[in-house]
Amino acid sequence: MNVDYTYRVRVEHRPGQLARVLEAIAEAGGLVGDVTTCKLTRAFSIREVTVEVEDDDRARELGRAIDALESVEVEDCFDRALALHEGGKLTIEPVRRIEGVQDMRDVYTPGVARACEAIRDDPDAARRLTMIGRTVAICTNGTRVLGLGDIGPRAAMPVMEGKAVFYKQLAGISAMPILIDATDPEEFVETVVRIAPTFGGIHLEDIATPACFDIEAALIERLPQPVMHDDVHGTAVVALAAVMAACRSVGVDLGDVVVGQLGLGAAGYGIAGLMVDAGAQRVIAYDPSEEAHEHARGRGVEIVDDEDTVLAEARVLVATTGRAGSIDANRIREGQIVLALSNPDPEIDPEEAMGAGAAFASDGSTVNNVLGYPGMFRGALDAGAQEMSSEMKLAAARALAESGGDGDGLLPDPLDPSVHERVAEAVREAAAEHG
Q1: How far apart are CA 186 and CA 141, in angstroms?
Q2: What distances in angstroms separate CA 256 from CA 282, 283, 317, 377, one per listed residue?
Q3: DSSP per residue, 47-59
Q4: How many CA atoms does the CB half-sphere of 386 hold within 13 Å?
Q5: CA–CA dist 10, 12 (Å, integer)
Q6: Which of 77, 67, 73 is nearest to 12 (CA)?
Q7: Cβ(11)–Cβ(47) under 8 Å?
Q8: Beta bridge partners of 50
Q9: What are the residue ranges in the chain where pLDDT is below 50?
């Protein structure tokens, strides 16, 4: 796994010095990112240079190589990701300050009793009078985290905090990570059911298959608020949006093409099922594990016997196999739409797929579920929805597909708040229409 290191470098302020530093980085195999000027005098400059390297050992070697240059001193070197995580990424803060006695009376005793009584008489008033209506629980047991596998709930916390940061920044939702130390699905479900009254929605994250399917189904049945496993449905919505936009770009209709899905884990299952809901002509899939077949068949997905069948018949090819580099370029067909979504490395590099004749190709760096879940839950909470229905997911996908541009811009910028507002509006309208 590549890592980003920042080197704080002091060099003499004369022509060519920074170029020497950058040349040394390139010769050592580092990939330069940001370069920030921290201090500039007539005698020297101090700059922070961020470099992507293979691992910690290579980072230390690179630091020594820079420091060995004449008139150059490395003042500091640090792992950017670890530095950013110092102290965690979240806090809980009030939305109003208490400035005087009257404020205290309003928000606490005796005034708080008025809100309690209003909720007692009308439980739905809690959405308006408390944080419940703008709060989501991000629940995990850490059994399948990113590309790291089963690392447990505590080690999964940085991912959950990251999800919560995007919720707040992009959709104005307060999201609370909930780490559940239970691998048994029934124990997990019972835990979530008991804490669920605190939240307006339940976001499930990084739970291994097939338990994640059973957990989600049980919670949807038992809880009166929307429940969504983001690895399944958030990823599916963004993948569908990319396919919709790509089909429009090359002049074909999704209803006229065969969609092929390689890999039926959480993401693959969700993508294949939503492609069926979106009206694809056929959705065929291959996964070596027969355990995955039953769930997919239940969503209308056709299981085939081998990977070659999917590659040969699919106009739209989606891969979520977890096997980097597993698709050779000579297996790509002219005019195919290819989404190779395994992280951190895809089944085939998009440029390689395009060079082999694909009409469009992308990977997980573009098809990112952060485009989906903040706006989806914002819309669901605003609508007071009790579930995240298929119609709401399709509406979110259409909104994303219509928000992008052409070429590499088929999907919009995930950090653009207006994108999430459009997704929220589309989901809210779908909930109102089909609720």
Answers
A1: 13
A2: 9, 11, 14, 31
A3: EEEEEEESSHHHH
A4: 7
A5: 7
A6: 73
A7: yes
A8: 6
A9: 406-407
Non-local CB neighbours of 348 within 8 Å, separated by 6+ positions: 319, 325, 326, 327, 328, 329, 332, 338, 340, 361
- Residue length of the chain: 435
Residue 385 three-state SS? coil
What's the CA gap between 275 and 339, in Å, rounded? 13
Residue found by looking up tokens 């530093």 in the block: 21
Q: How far is CA 41 from CA 36, 37, 46, 303, 371, in A?
A: 15, 11, 9, 67, 43
163, 167, 269, 373: the active-site residue: 163
- Give the distance between the most distant pair of CA atoms in the chain: 76
pLDDT digits (tens, 9 = 90+) for 257-292: 999 999 999 999 999 999 999 999 999 999 998 888
The first and second tokens of residue 349, run together, are 């590099």
Do residues 331 and 311 make contact, with C-beta atoms less than 8 angstroms apart?
yes
Residue 318 belongs to what H/E stretch?
strand 316-319
How buried is residue 249: exposed, middle or buried, by Cβ count under 10 Å (0-12/13-18/19+)? Answer: middle
Q: Give the pairing of strands 44-53 and 31-40.
A: antiparallel
Question: CA 7, CA 51: separation in Å to the nearest integer?
Answer: 8
**DSSP structural state of residue 299:** T
Catalytic residue among 7, 39, 89, 108: 108
* Residue 329 near residue 355 (C-beta atoms within 8 A): yes
**Phi, psi at 413, each rounded to 5°:** -70, 120
Q: What is the DSSP string of 29-47?
A: T-EEEEEEEEEE-SSEEEE
Q: Report how far residue 330's alpha carbon sits from residue 6's, in angstroms, rounded to the nearest whole number.
A: 39
pLDDT of residue 343: 85
Phi-psi region of 48 (alpha: psi -120 to 50; beta: other; left: phi over 0): beta
Is residue 163 annotated as part of the catalytic site, yes or no? yes
The per-residue pLDDT for 201 is 98
- Token pair for 185: 């699905």
In this structure, are residues 118 and 129 in contact, taking their beta carbons and an 8 Å threshold? yes
- CB–CB of 28/34 below 8 Å? no
Phi, psi of 299 (to 5 degrees): -95, 5
- CB contact at 8 A, 394 and 274: yes
With CA atoms as reference, report the closest residue to 5 among 68, 45, 65, 90.
65
- Phi first, then psi: give them for residue 89, nearest 5 degrees: -115, 0
Rounded-to-integer distance, Cα 185 and Cα 324, Å: 30
pLDDT of residue 407: 47
Whether 89 sits among the annotated catalytic residues: the reply is no
